[in-house]
Design goal:
Strand 5 and strand 6 form a beta hairpin. The protein is of the alpha+beta class and 172 residues long. It starts with a helix and ends in a 20-residue tail after the last helix. 27% of the residues lie in helices and 31% in strands. A six-stranded antiparallel sheet has the order 1-2-6-5-4-3, sandwiched between helices.
């Protein structure tokens, strides 16, 4: 189905290759905690998908200081000062967006990282959306899609023991 959506012929090994790559990603990068999700942005079936992660965690500490820490605004490992900007969405309100370059562990490899963070006061949660890869161009090409995703995000609080109430619709 993915090959057809890109109007490409997978040839003899293409389907098996893509299935193997997606299986590897699912096994290697599937999130352990319930509060984290991994989305894949595929440019085409022959390239490595970009992992875009989301996490919702209990809000802790001072709002501004926590958001700056979560977005990496003052990251001492950044290759150069991160570009940090305010970012607003209708559902989550004011947050921060940062683009930064960081070294991966103690290697010479540099990762391009794009990160969004918000605090949802009503839910008592900090929300993080991020991606990072050594392929800076891939992050730049994905930036508009990631921003659109950021505008769709929200926090839903589920009543797991409803009496006469239904759980909220995530899209409402």
């Amino acid at each position: 189905m993915i090959w057809r959506s890109y109007l490409r012929d997978p040839e003899e090994s293409g389907v098996a290759f893509l299935a193997g790559r997606l299986k590897h990603i699912a096994e290697a990068f599937a999130p352990e905690p319930f509060d984290t999700r991994v989305l894949l942005r595929m440019e085409e079936p022959t390239t490595m998908p970009l992992q875009v992660r989301t996490r919702v965690k209990p809000a802790e500490g001072d709002r501004e200081a926590t958001l700056r820490a979560l977005v990496g605004a003052d990251d001492p490992d950044a290759v150069e000062p991160p570009v940090v900007e305010p970012f607003h969405t209708d559902s989550l309100g004011e947050g921060l967006r940062a683009f930064r370059y960081v070294r991966q562990d103690d290697t010479a490899e540099v990762l391009a990282a794009l990160r969004y963070v918000w605090r949802d006061e009503e839910a008592g949660a900090d929300v993080v959306l991020w991606t990072a890869t050594h392929d800076t161009a891939q992050v730049i090409r994905a930036a508009q899609d990631i921003e659109e995703l950021a505008h769709t995000m929200g926090v839903a609080i589920w009543n797991l023991e409803p009496k006469d109430e239904a759980s909220p619709d995530v899209n409402s």
